[in-house]
Amino acid sequence: MTDQQQQKRQKITNSCSQTANESGGAEEVGDQESEIEGFPAEVIGNILSYVANVKDVVRASWTCRKWRVALRHYLHNLHTLQHHESKFLPAFQKSRTEQLEFLLTDTLLQTLRLQSLYILHMTKFSATAVIAWLLHTGDSLRHLTYEVPMSTLYVDMLERCGRKRCLESLHLRYATIRFTADPTTQRFLCLLSLTLSNMIDVTTLQLQSLVSTCRKLESFSLATSVVTSTDPQWTLNLTSSSLKSFFLDGMYFDSVKLEANLLKALRLRDSMFTNFKLQKGARLSSLRIDNIMIVDDLDLGNSTNYFLDLEEMEVRRSCVNVWDVIDHVFSNPSSKLRKLELIRRATTVCYPVLTLNVETIARLFPRLDRLHLSDEVLDISTTTAGNQLQGPTIFEKLRFLELHCLRSHEAILLV
Q: For strand 400-405 and strand 370-374, is the pairing parallel, antiparallel, or unpaired?
């Protein structure tokens, strides 16, 4: 056999081997496709629901027909770009916003059972697109977060969302409220959670009307919003027979009166009031106060019964009137208290010193799990505190302890 014949034979052998490998690879790809086809569309829809970017959802739906079916019938959650992702768009170009708006509209119109919609973006969408999104989701939508600056045309988000039968949670930001309660119209039939932040031109009457209209509302949050009032006293009166959680952040009122018999959690942060009054017989389980200035009176129903169910209490950098509430808590200690945090502001203002020590806290709150104190609260040095911990003090349930020294800005952590 000549050399040319041997080379020709070798080429034929290599060609056959390559064909065999390609055939095996094709079979392997075919097996993978058959495995994907056998995957339940419901599971694929749940996977796509965890993707926090509409662009990635669309790319994934191009995988095969099964994934497109999952997108249409079993996609439950849909997100736009997050705030930190929006910053990477070059100068928020109008073309980029239009592309995202078209992509979101096209994707939404393909879904049939969308339950959660998160629209988080720093640019303005058109009113036509927003109305189309809300109309298409119909009665399937349960959770809506809309944090977008006002569009070129006005969209009354509360009016659009008020008639959705299954809506359970609503978070609005950068919007205005043109809402008045109409007793002949039933709205927000199932709304359980309402969060309003950075609202524009809201009146106290509108807020009062909104809260009273939501008959099943359990959680209400109001943050850094411009609120006006026809009342010269600038009073916010909220009444709810279902409210269990109330949160104010960055708000300023002359007077706040809250009437909620079922209230369990109260949180106030970075706000100023002349008077704050919690009316009737609410029994709090969680009380969190951070950087609050109250000029005259703080009334949280300071009786022997209102703090007996308290499980969590945090008080930071607040005025003297807030510390008066602490006296009521320690005078009528809750055996259910698991978390206690008392931090005073590091200023030259003279506060009355609480006559407490670590042993007293251990005796009053036997179920305490987390304890965070500043030296200004106990009027003791960190060394003395350490010596108390080495004594007969008993914390059977305590897992986390932090003693903070405001003068030296040091902390002792004991886990």
A: parallel
Contact in structure between 55 and 82 (CB atoms under 8 Å): no
CA angle, residues 201, 206, 209, in degrees to nearest 5: 165
Separation of alpha carbons 330 and 336, rounded Å: 13
| Structural contact between residues 289 and 268, judged by C-beta atoms closer than 8 angstroms | yes
Query: Would you give the DSSP letter of residue 354?
Result: P
Mean pLDDT of the chain: 77
User: The tokens 């309660």 sit on which residue?
Assistant: 181
What digits encode the pLDDT tens for the residues 43-63?
888 888 888 788 888 888 887
The first and second tokens of residue 213, run together, are 């209209």
Rounded alpha-carbon distances, angstroms, from residue 163 to 150, 157, 173, 185, 209: 21, 11, 19, 9, 16
* Predicted confidence band of residue 239 (pLDDT cuts 50, 70, 90): very high
Is pLDDT of 379 > 60?
no
DSSP secondary structure letters along 6-54 = HHHHHHHHHHHHHHHHHHHHHHHHHHHHHHHHHS-HHHHHHHHHT-S-H
C-alpha distance across the termini of the chain, in Å: 84
For residue 272, CA distances in Å to 114, 195, 298 come to: 40, 20, 11
5-41 confidence digits (pLDDT tens) = 555 555 544 554 454 444 444 444 445 455 666 778 8
* 114, two tokens: 């969308």
Residue at 38: amino acid letter = G
